[in-house]
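Notes from hallway chat w/ T.B., transcribed later so I don't forget. T.B. wanted the structure written out for a chain they're using in a teaching module, and asked if we could keep both sequence and C-alpha cells in one place. Agreed to drop them here.
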Amino acid sequence: MARCAYCKAKEAELYEDGSPICLKCAELTGNNGGIQTALVQALSEAMLRADSANAEFTAIMSDIPGGLPESDGVTRIRNASAQLVVARHRLMEAHTRLADYLDRGIMPEGLKRSGQ
C-alpha cells in the first residue's frame, strides 16, 4: 500500500482524487464521510480476523506429523475450520458492503440506524 499523502506516516486505506489517504487523516479532514471510513475500517478488521483464523488453522494442520490425528486433534481441526469459515464469511460481507456503497451508493443497514 502507498503512504498517506497527508501524514506520510501511515499506510493509506482510501484514495481521494487519486491521492492515498489514511483513515485518521480522512476523519480529520472531513473527507470521504464517516460511512466510507467506517466501512473500510470494518473491512480492515475483517481481513485481520480472517488472517488470524487462517494462521491458527494452518498451525493446527502442521501440528499433525502425517498420521491420523487423535480425537482431540479432530475437534481442534473442526473448531479452527469453523472459525475460519465464519471469518471468511464476515470478510466477504464487509467487502460486499463497501463495494455496494462505493459502486451503487447503497447505505448499509447498520450505519443507517446509527445516524451516520
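Follow-up for T.B.: Residues 34-113 form one domain. Might be a good example for the class.
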